[in-house]
Amino acid sequence: MCLHPRLRSLAFVLAASTGCMGAVSKTDTPRGAEGGGTLLTQMVSPNHPDSQPWVTVPANAVGGGPCAGTTVAGLLDEIRADFADVQDITNLKTPGPDGTITMVAGPAVREGTAPPPAVGTASYIVALRDERSLAAVFFRGAGCLEENCQDRRHWFFETGDACRPRWVGYNRTVDRVGGSHGRCVDFEGTSVWSIPGDPEPRRRCDADWSPQNISGTRRAASIDPFGCSQTVNPGPGHVVPIVLSITQGTDLGVAALSLSGTGILFVDGRSFAGKVERQRLTSSTDETVAGDCPVRRRIDISLDFEEPTNIGLPGGFGMVEITADVPSGCSPPAGTACRSSAHIVKDGIYSSP
After folding, report:
1. I want to staple 304 with a disulfide (CB 3.0 to 4.6 A). Which of 26, 74, 280, 350 is the partner?
2. pTM reported for the whole predicted model
3. Closest Cα to residue 10, out of 120, 99, 97, 82?
4. pLDDT tens digits, residue range 242-277?
5. Are 124 and 93 in contact (CB under 8 A)?
């Protein structure tokens, strides 16, 4: 789901959850602001399935429909009176002239310098409105540099009949040391109104890193900005159709990969041994091409068939990176040495300039 243009600036800090929810009253106050578990059984489903109808509004904004005559400030007072978790959160974010909300990410840090310790706290509210409803997102963070926090909680509220607020979502996200690659995310709940989107499965601390079956033949394309190909790809940035073939045996963690069509003589048709985690395949080959001008060459292949936008490109599978060292004063045979960072993408998405 896509964020409304006026909500996109919230995505990196606003997290939410949906659940089975119930009307707000003094008896269904959520608990957990001081470290205990938050009561989720009294929530009700939000009326808005996504963020599209919402626009951000200031404290003096007045609702429409059942909320005609109700101000944002009045609604927030009512929510705070009923919900102990958010009673001390009072800082309402004011939208700019274009309706966007500005977040403070933290102080700039010079390259090579460790950032200051993230020990602060942060809290704020974002108010939303459509033609018939008002809504509010309450945020509380810990381990913060300004509003960039390692521990993030959000409570979501939306008006229903008679403009009474209802609790429609809760989320907690904690960034911490752990997982398969050093940093991971503990995530409780799911997203509300596409904010912020559930974390990628591999980023979760409880992710299952068991190798999966990725065997098969896939049509793809190579975008080689350095023109390493010898027989195709007449210029940098051109898109070359290729074929990926992967085989796995009983041990799914071990795979053999071959590529064809790249135009790189020492890559096409060759079998590369690889390691598989989830749907990610990695392979590294170090070799020396003997001769009067010996070439030391490294071929690194990293492909991931689970992530939708690897390498920063929609439809990206991964990279084939080649480096080569040649002794000074000699010329290696053609096609034995080159440098390249070829982007491997799904077939049919990109075309040559």
Report:
1. 280
2. 0.64
3. 99
4. 999 999 999 999 999 999 988 888 899 999 999 999
5. yes
